[in-house]
Amino acid sequence: MGKDVRLQKMLADCGIASRRKAEELIDAGFVKVNGVTAKIGDKVDPKRDRVTVRGKSVERQTGHIYIMLHKPRGFITTMNDEMDRKCVAELVKDIPERIYPVGRLDRDSEGLLLMTNDGAFTNKLSHPSMHVPKTYRVTVRPSVTEEQLTQLAVGVMIDGQQTAPAEVKVVLQEPGRVVLEIVLYEGRNREIRKMCDAVGLEVARLKRIAVGPVKLGMLQPGKWRNLTAEEVKRLNAAAKPDKREKEETKNADDTAHAGTRPKGRTASGNSRRGKRR
């Protein structure tokens, strides 16, 4: 068999890390192929080449594992940390397979975190074109106005870019605090906290309660459980490219050939800002 598998894909398939994280490991010089330090773009024959990460041999996984973890606050979403902070690896150390997180939750957030050793599954759910909805229960202070709710739902500017439309509703309103349910269709860094800050709301608590059709339910903080085969199937089904995005890509290709812009679109592509459901 020829060397026809990209190294980062092989590492992801073996449960070492996601493809993006695997590229970081390669770029940092932690990965060697047959004793030679690897570089981005290298290909390997998984059956013949000896691949090591930080001096440890990489072995192909014989089966895939999929779990959900209820990440508590105070833990970072990584499998190791140079600053010796608490990380989610401590919570799944009884799992013999080498797994890693699908996406992330920041240190001060809690809730549902998927973990697996299936690189293709991770890439599918994490790719920005898939728009897998993620549902959060967010406690804000001191109160919220209709204008702020509308701003959050329509989209606000953070880091120089407008957020995609979201679904926002009030779950509970008490003096000094409001509990919101927010459904996001994109996965930018600390997005909800930045969105709330942009409209003048203070986030007191942030908890992810669902990823696509899979809900956290009554799983207790710090505990994990295996996903059922049906849950894995439903997550895979939820990870499908947005139809409008596929249509726009086709229109853009047609435009490049015809030299004209598709009707009904502005130059900035604002036609994508419709509600996704």
Question: Would you mind describing this structure in some detail?
Answer:
By secondary structure, the chain is of the alpha+beta class. It has three domains: 5-57, RNA-binding S4 domain (Structural Genomics Hypothetical 15.5 Kd Protein In mrcA-pckA Intergenic Region, Chain A, Roll); 62-130 and 214-240, Alpha-Beta Plaits, CATH 3.30.70.580; 134-211, 2-Layer Sandwich (Alpha-Beta Plaits). The protein is 24% helix and 26% strand. It has seven helices and 17 strands. The strands form four sheets. Strands 7, 8, 9, 10, 13, 14, 15, 16 and 17 form a nine-stranded mixed beta sheet that branches. Strands 3-2-5-6 form a four-stranded antiparallel beta sheet. A hairpin with a 2-residue loop joins strand 5 (51-53) and strand 6 (56-57). The longest helix is centred in the last third of the chain and has 16 residues, at 243-258. The protein starts with a strand and ends in a 19-residue tail after the last helix. The model is unreliable at 255-277 (pLDDT under 50).
Q: Would you tell me the structural class of the helices and strands?
A: alpha+beta
> What is the level 1 CATH name of the largest domain?
Alpha Beta
**pLDDT below 50 for ≥5 consecutive residues: which ranges?**
255-277
Distance between the termini: 45 Å
Shape: elongated
Name the average pLDDT. Answer: 84
What fraction of the residues are assigned to beta strands by DSSP?
A: 25-35%
CATH topology of the largest domain: Alpha-Beta Plaits
Give the biggest beta sheet.
Answer: 9 strands, mixed
Radius of gyration: 21 Å
Q: How many domains, as an integer?
A: 3
**How helical, in percent, are the residues?**
10-25%
Q: Total helix count? A: 7
> What's the architecture of the largest domain, going by CATH?
2-Layer Sandwich
Find the count of extended strands (DSSP E, 2+ residues). 17
> What is the CATH superfamily label of the largest domain?
Pseudouridine synthase I, catalytic domain, N-terminal subdomain
